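Re: the pair you flagged

First of the two:
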Amino acid sequence: MAYVECPVCGTENFFNETAKRVCCWCDANLEHANIENLRYEKEQREAEYPKITGDHTMNILKITKENRAQYENTEIVFDGHVELEADLGWFVTKSIKAKGYIFGSAGTGIVAGTGIEAGEGIVAGTGIKAGWGIKAGTGIKAGDGIVAGEGIEAGWGIVAGEGIEAGTGIKAGFSIHAKFISVSFRIFAGLCNWRMPEEAEQQICAEVRNGIVACGKVIN
């Protein structure tokens, strides 16, 4: 088992001997030794495929230290992207739903009493917690842990710096990376239905403490 930290986005990747060295989060080709080349490739992909960084035609709701009181403990529904400023600590709301992405910068975590849902990706500098479910059209990434009272679902991959816990199960279009996973029912990785996922995109790189792996290969 090989451990590789992506020099572009910092995501921890774990590969077996046959797996293709591609970052599970930003798709950088980790076979390359030149960091500047990796960053350039990422910029080119983002220019070609806006969905990686979000639909740039959508409006953006920016939550900052100055206006956070206006949105905390409310039900946030926004027809665009939601961005949370860095170093907000835990931003607590009743629920949050965005047509685009939900992005929390470094030092900011997202907590919802009920659900968190995004048409695109969900990213938090620290953790993500929801009393109900967490659902993203693309990927989910948290610097710390991801916790949901019900299920967690991502159209792409799921990456957590710590553990992933769900009251029911986890479904991911590509791989799942975390220190551990604990769910009440089943875990699915590599469910991508718009192309055939590669071997590395069907991996569950985590200690499975509880739950049944219904789809995907566990790599410890």
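Second of the two:
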Amino acid sequence: MTTNKQILKDVGEDLIKEIDARLSSKNINNTNQASDSLKEVSTNNNLKIKGVGYIRFIDVGRKPGKFAPVDVIQEWVRTKLGIQDEKEVKQVAFLVNRKLAVKGNRMFLDKSKGLQLDEIIEMGIEKINEAITDNIVLTVKSEIKTIMQGI
């Protein structure tokens, strides 16, 4: 019989693999920082997936209203767009940041472009329920077998 902690650990690792796969398939992991930051933390009755704070923007997007941190946008311009000239990096970063402040990003405009973490969480809940149910069934069968042998 598998312990609840092991079930949660296994599901956590599966969820991280799914998040990694989505980051790659949707081409939204240009620095690999989001993937590299993902960690599973489980106890007997709790599962957490921890990662960088900006992962929520990769999931549901950044709404319009404020400028993003300039250094983050400049790094994105360097890595994603391949621009290295500092003057051009600053110019492009300003334009990208202004667009974000006015319209938000593509995940905000179209949720299907983001990670869709709600879907991944649902998948995890289903896996946990299935594994715990299987564990209970195995335990009950084992107990019944033990009782039947004693009769």
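The two ends are 24 Å apart (CA to CA).

-B.
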